[in-house]
Design a protein that fits this description.
By secondary structure, the protein is α/β, with parallel strands linked by helices. About 40% of the residues lie in helices and about 20% in strands. The chain contains seven helices and seven strands. Strands 3-2-1-4-5-7-6 form a seven-stranded mixed β-sheet, sandwiched between helices. Helix 2 (about 55-70) links the parallel strand 2 (about 35-45) and strand 3.
């Protein structure tokens, strides 16, 4: 990525909090480099629960805006697709939702879920993103990256949808504390340690990913497609 020419970055997630869990440090690094980072979330992340109140949906969205403000992401849209049931919706509807955003901002770098995730919404968002960003002539984007989400990527199994095999590691040593601070806005979505979706273990994951490549803290990604235009 060039630090001289700001990149337009699009983060496509199934649920608000996925962006901070998976790449909060990387978003902060993009911000520090002068890039413009946008995000879209597909569901409210709440309505699949057996018992919930409408106020919880508003609270989740409020947390999303607070976290985004801290890490430097601008939410463009929140979809109203059914939480944890996106496989019940025609794929073309989800693809068109993404394509409309794509036409508006023409991103250079796209981040989305790993296809190997256990969460069905994550899988659907991954597939829809790849369809929306088919490498046709005349396209402007240059790279699609998938990220991991604690309690989804790690809970899956290769016999279901393959493995998450990172081939890109981004140093977030200067941003790990702010990432964890941003996650505190999503405290209702976090679990107690030693669950992987806890503050302690999210920090451990960043240490582990860093240790794989000689860094103190890192976030890991799979580059799904890269085009040098």
């Amino acid at each position: 990525m060039s630090e001289e020419t700001p990149n337009i970055v699009l983060v496509i997630v199934a649920h608000s909090d996925d962006e901070t869990l998976g790449l909060g440090g990387t978003i902060l690094r993009h911000k520090n480099q002068g890039d413009k980072i946008y995000g879209i979330a597909m569901t409210n992340g709440i309505s699949a629960r057996t018992i919930y109140e409408e106020e919880q949906i508003d609270k989740r969205k409020e947390a999303a805006y607070k976290a985004a403000n801290l890490i430097g992401l601008e939410w463009l849209d929140f979809g109203d697709f059914p939480d944890n049931s996106m496989d019940s919706i025609p794929l073309i509807n989800i693809v068109k939702f993404i394509e409309n955003v794509k036409k508006d901002i023409n991103p250079k770098i796209i981040y989305t879920h790993s296809a190997s995730d256990l969460n069905i919404d994550h899988k659907i968002v991954n597939e829809s993103t790849l369809i929306a960003f088919r490498p046709k002539a005349g396209e402007l984007w240059e790279e699609i990256r998938s990220f991991e989400v604690p309690s989804s990527t790690d809970y899956s199994h290769k016999t279901l949808r393959g493995n998450f095999n990172p081939n890109l590691y981004i140093n977030i040593e200067n941003y790990i504390d702010l990432k964890l601070e941003a996650l505190s806005f999503y405290k209702d979505e976090l679990w107690e340690s030693p669950n992987s979706r806890s503050i302690d273990m999210i920090k451990v994951l960043a240490q582990y990913r860093g240790s794989q490549v000689g860094l103190r803290y890192a976030e890991a990604f799979e580059v799904l497609r890269r085009i040098s235009r």
